[in-house]
Fold each of these.
Amino acid sequence: MINLMINEQPVSVEEGAMILDAAKKINVKIPTLCNLELESFKLEHRIGSCRICVVEVKGRRNLAPACCTPVEEGMLVKTSTLRVIKARRTMLDLLLSNHPKDCLTCEKNLDCELQSLAQEMGLHKIIYKGERIHHNIDLANEAIVRDLNKCIMCRRCETACNTIQTVGILSGIRRGFWSVVGPAFEKPLADTKCTFCGQCVSVCPVGALTEMNRTYDVWRALNDDSKHIVVQTAPAVRVALGEEFGMEPGSITTGKLVSALKMLGFDKIFDTDFAADLTIMEETTEFIGRLQRNENLPILTSCCPGWVKFFEHQFTDLINIPSTAKSPQQMLGAVAKSIYAKKVGLEPSDVVMVSVMPCLAKKYEAAREEFSHDGVRDVDIVISTRELANMLKEAGIQFNDLPNSTYDNPLGESTGAGVIFGTTGGVLEAVLRTASEWVTGKELKRVDFEEVRGLQGIREAEIAIGDKKIKVAISSGLGNARTLLEKIRRGEAQYHAIEIMACPGGCINGGGQPYIHGDDSILDRRRLALYEEDRMKPVRKSHENFHVQKLYRDFLDKPGSEKAHKLLHTHYTARDMTP
């Protein structure tokens, strides 16, 4: 242990700790801006670029950044001297002098760390005036807006993209005053290997990276009497939306969510969990077939569009092993625009499908060419959890006081297996529940597969299905996916099935979820809430969903049929590797 003094208070911390860590231990607050730590994912972004966290260390001529200065035995630290305060204010003044002044219309208004820090430090006017940088705003994709005029060079996005996700498209470009973080050659994201996972958006402290806002499109659709407006909600949304209204993280808001959507004026409210059950029917059928033929193993889950785009760029040699089943979002869109539309006497073009998703890559996915038929998209508009919260606030809906309502059937009926799609390991567990009964022909007594649960980046398990041992792996975060798949490439690991989610922790940590601001304990509470909703469901296996069974009887014949393949399956595209 290292012993030091901070503001004349003794503190002991482990060797290798930073001054900031020591200060937190004795509840001394040091303001930070570029610093980011996520313990669950072993992420430490400590580069000291903003210099907001400077402190005075006795015996040193210069002020030291607390986030990246290691403690030393006998160190004497002062965190709030006049020199320190003046330096912090100067650094913040300089950042503000080169920052746009459009806070009222900024997507991060009231959720911006720079704005909060300026308010906390009492900065109410611009001291330094002069030239400002100017960059064109990147609007060339469906998912993410890049406004580099707001970039403060904290480089958090770079760490998220390169270290956690290993996508590797962001780095510091240009020099000096014009320095920003962006892709090579300043290309738009659409022309790169970007997966649109949105993890860069999740960690950006300002409005330099935000989602492509589609709320205006939803309002316009809701006011168009010539259209039939339906909405679907993903499982992870229901355990995070409440945070935007002051509810405790992990609050299950399913019933209130449905009531709120009814108040907004949607004609029908459907549950993406229904399509998650449908996905399991198709994916499990595919898995068992491959298992029996011992070909194209391991099967990889395909419900995450960020992960799909990742392997289309980076693992083209393995493009035959992901399941061909569409994601639940696209399955529900396809069923709504075909079977449902026909049933209620509408043309597909008369139905507007809106998705509420925790994920920004879902915006990209809905626009993929293969999910459009005769000019009609399966899913028309995708909004994030945050965007829906803003719509509810704009409408003056008192979310916390709403009664509980139920989804509209038949596309609103779901099982516990569909609910757990929202967390890492959930898709694989849902597959195992169904595969166990289909392979053995016996009722599964133990529905909970604890072996595949948790937030660790890579998990392995061996599951007995009948007389066969099934080796599975679960990965969340694209960096972990890379590690796992490279082992398979080298022949160092063999599995039968792998679940991969692009975002660390799965959809509960999607790029469109309420910001956690470094408190990753929130993710565990969201995760446990999904398992609690699963536990409370009267039916917990996808193949026992009555309305899914009826869909096959009336329209699709059986899982894996020609009709099911035409409506519920897709293909993948090997994409260029060059930046």
Note: The domain at 96-211 is CATH 3.30.70.20 (Alpha-Beta Plaits).
Amino acid sequence: MVVVLLAGVAWRVGRYAARRPLWGDEGFVAVNLLDRDFADMLRPPLEHGQVVSIGFLWSELAVTKVLGLSEWALHLLPMLSGLAAFLLTWRLAAEALDRRTALLGMAVLAAAYYPVRHGVEVKPYAGDMAAAVALMYLAWRLKQRPGSVGLWVALTALGAAAVWLSLPAAFVVGGVAIFLGWHSLATRRPRQFVPLAIFAVVATASFAWMYQVFAGPTARANLWYWAIPTWKESFPPLDRPWLIPWWLVRVHAGNMMAYPVGGNHLGSTATLLVVIAGSASLWRRRRRDLVILLLSPLLPALAAAAMQKYPYGTSARVMLFMAPSFCLLAGAGLMAIFRRFVPIPARTTAVRIAVAALVIWALGGLASDIIWPYKRASNLSARQTTQAIAAKFSPDDQVLIANAKDYGQFLPHFEGPDCAPIWFYMHTFSRAAVRWTVPPEQVRPVAGDTWVVYYETPRSSEPGGMEQRQGQLQLYLRQLTERLGQPSLEEYELLRPYKHRGPGRLSVYRFPPAREPPGR
């Protein structure tokens, strides 16, 4: 177990230490930290239509105010959340499972890619996992000590706070209530319903408050989510009930069960079968309490998906709060397979081989992150190029971004998978003031240079779009030239962004300093 824990911790810390550049989805969240204060985070929509828990946004903003806007600061909380989830799962496994089953379950979690990946991203998914396993661990302790006032207070306080820190924590709160209610009935202890009712009421009231002030307005501001395939396919087809059984198989054998590896299109079928085997084995061995605890959050999540309020199963990230449960049940399934098919004298060897293979897989993941410390090479190219450009700016200069943040403005829209990281890095690396979408008549000469930076990425879905955007840019530049003089031009080519037909390009126009001091 020590080797497994060291491998899991090493992969997580090593990925963080690699200082991976932001990729598109991370940048979409990170840019909200540039101009918004704590109150502004409550005013939807967020930049790029992001749906992120308010607790995560506030926590990230607090960290960046202390540590700055580097990747080290942005990735710190997700990394700590991922480590906390990993170690709390170990404590739950050690108390709820026999040693071999716990060892196999933790080895699966140590080697699983998605918990590590999302533990080093500016995204809330690692926090979802940490909140989930913390709630389940306290619920398991309460099963053992149902009369502990301290544990009930801790669970109630955590349930009330977790729904602000993690959107799917509401499902885990519901699952914990199901588990504790079932245990109270099974053990015939009706007195437990009083603290359980207090827990349910407090957590529900906290969630209702959070939904009223943040989650509800954010959802209504981003109704376009319901039109994208990732969301449409994640809701059960209630209008075609004959397809529901196939839908259940498809989503549960897809990315939500990709532990330690797997994928969509039934790519995680093996893990699903092992999890089913583990659940059945524990149920037969009179460990129904643990099966109910680990799987009960799926019921509220399914209910939310049926109401089209939350995507279910089509990606690992939105279901990452279930990762500890699936990995522990996978460990139970592997142990059940060994008990069924491996003779007793060889079982220890079989367990050791399985654990060794999973540890080697985790160390291979660590080596891969050291060799390729980025999601895509274009992300590294975007950071390096933006940093090289920003190094030329002086404090007396002004920087104008000749792309619009939103559609419908007089400049071309800032789009593409690298747009948000470039936006973020241009702010963080620049010593000069950076301004966006400034009308040419509002541009004033300054003591230093005036820089105009324009990002272009080819879009195969927009015939003639590049020519139209270039026309908008040239009109803008002509008006600036009349006011500031003739600019020089430098062009920087970025590696081809994901799913685009050609490389991205940063065009940097440098206008000379004002001939007279500003204001004369």
Note: The chain has two domains: 2-371, 377-511.
Amino acid sequence: MTGPTGTGTTTGGTTTGGGETRVERDQIGEMTLDARDLRGIHTHRAMDNFRLSGRAVHPRLVRAYALVKKACARANAETGWLDPGIAGAIERASDEVASGTHDALFSVDALQGGAGTSTNMALNEVLANRATELLAEAEPSRFPPDGAAAVSPLGHVNLHQSTNDTYPTALKVCLIGLVREAAGAAQALQGAFQDKEKEFARVVTVGRTETLPAVPMTLGAEFSGFAECVGRDRWRAFKCEERLRVVNLGGTAVGTALAAPRRYVFRATDILREITGYPLARAENLVDQTANADALVEVAGIFQAAASNLVKVSRDLRFLAHSGEILLPALQAGSSIMPGKVNPVILEAAIQCGMRMRASLSLVAEAASQGTLQINEYLPLVADAMIESLSLYAAAAETLARHVAGIRADEAACALLLDSNPMTVTAFVPIVGYDGARDLLDGWKADARRLPLRAFLSEKLGGDTVARVLSPAALTSLGFAGEPGAAQLTAPNLTAPQPGAPRREAAPSDKGTTP
């Protein structure tokens, strides 16, 4: 029988207890396949040869590759090199693959030798065989179902192409989509933090340096820092699309466009731009873009930064939850043995996503540096690492954004921390000077009444002064408005030293008294 055709020659089939089969031959030998299998001999060899990661080529890359094949078929038809009927069938088959209809057929391992040739051939074979079926269905008089296969994987689907120009192009198309999704997820996370920045703007709490209590600040200011760093991630992700829009489609094997018609070379990228809606541009130097993958390293570096911020803000939120300043949404029971325990599971998951991203993306620079002369044979590793990492970031950022939206402030806990934090006296340095603030702190520690610090300061400096200095507005203003040499406060039992004046040493009888 004659059914789908493979990479090489297809011979008549036989009928067995398991159904009809076909035999395909290539330069290695021959293989018997199921007659209706859209995959061909090269795909099956690759499935046998590469039993490595247990992960198939990512569906996002396969779908992007189908759009590249569609563009090439249309360019070949427009320039007169491909029968319009065959080109149309390839385009329809490509649309099916791009929609995910045939994802299950692309099971070649993500880590494969040959710079992605097995992925390219899997597309060529599936598209050729499916296009043959479509032609038989649409034009049975011209392409009878029991006739010879109409569409060739190499002669038609791969016409004027090489793995070395189509694979990098497909990868960049895939990554542009993922970069846009990642930028959108970063925008959602930034917005969630900005909402909390406003909500917590009047909640005064304790700032920290090296995990220890530092000067007071507002919880809203803390969340503004989260929002800003994620905002930079959003902007960098948005801008890095520029590094992906330059493609080498049409360059064929080594970037010289050998064996490809000039008109096709100039048209293929334009058509791909129309199909995808992405602002793609043909590289001015196709040899460079075929040989070098440094643009992908740059994009990987940008997402290394995003991963670092994802880990940092998630760890900080977990710390704030531990200190009691914020209350995380309770999502699931935290222990199989400890009743009532609820853990910060979303934050821990986001941290793991960031760590996985950083580890995977570190491979990109190494793989790019190992390319040899006119091709990078390790692009499958680059593709696997980058697609996984960008997908992880988008998912983690969206999940974290939803989680942040449910965070509440525990104002009572924040107030307690503030009342027991010795560093709060730093806020009064502009009023009483460094030495005066130290005297206040010594006096509070020595006070046998064990008053909360705020109450002690109110007693010594006046409640209105303390309320003003520790107000959200004062704590988040850009510096203070005092003039040099002017004492800001006159209060009982307190003299504000002038800047540069020597500190008054306490007399023995002063020890333990109010400063």
Note: Residues 420-510 form one domain.
